[in-house]
Amino acid sequence: MFQTVRDNAAKRVKNAPAGRAPAPLTAKEIMRRIATVATTSLALTVFATLAGLAITSTPALAASGISCSSLKGTATGTVTIGRCAPQQKANTSASGAATSLISGGTVTWKSSGQTTIITLSVHSPGQGSCKKGSKEEDATGSVTGGTSTYTKAGNPVAIRACFTQQGGTLSLVKGSKAQL
Question: Do 44 and 73 touch, CB atoms closer than 8 A?
């Protein structure tokens, strides 16, 4: 998507008459850019909120001891994290609605029904470590509360996620493990 935007911009500059500015963006191009930015931001925030994780390679975050290696979902549906260790029968995975988790929110753990509340901020390094056609979104924040005994208020949250531009699916950056 971003390559297409760059290509279109390059064509406008190339096709502009000598000594004149290129034609302004069309309304359709502006709306496409706004939609891409909004969807990407929503997806990363949702991803980070539901995961409530910290990257395992960050020593300060590794002390909490909950390592999760799965994140699935879409920017407009439900997002679920799972495969967490140490395993607990009462906390096998956590899910929440993507649309309610823009800058943080609540996820509910399966089977306990307990909750974890998270606040986040998100930025993107572009494609980063994700496959072509995807964008890396990095979220940082903290656990601020909830009823869960599996997570603790004050735990740092740091997540690296891939967001597919087409389809809006979310997953962890390949090979990464995250911790709560």
Answer: no
Whole-angstrom distance, CA of residue 175 vs CA of residue 90: 26
Token pair 């979104």 in the structure block, residue: 137
132-163 pLDDT tens trace: 999 998 878 888 999 998 888 988 877 888 98
C-alpha closest to that of 176 among 91, 87, 53, 86: 53
| CB-count exposure of residue 87 (10 Å: 0-12, 13-18, 19+) | exposed
Which pLDDT value is given to residue 75?
Answer: 78
Taking Cα atoms as reference points, which of 51, 39, 72, 57 lies closest to residue 118?
Answer: 51
Burial (CB count <10 Å: 0-12, 13-18, 19+), residue 63: exposed
Structure-block tokens of residue 20: 């004149």
Tokens standing for residue 25: 């963006």
Residue-by-residue DSSP string for 96-136: EEGGG-SSEEEEEEEET--EEEEEEEEEEEETTTSPTTEEE
Quick count: other Cβ atoms within 10 Å of Cβ 96? 23
Burial class (CB in 10 A: 0-12, 13-18, 19+), 29: middle
Q: Which two tokens stand for residue 28?
A: 């359709």
| pTM, 2 dp | 0.64
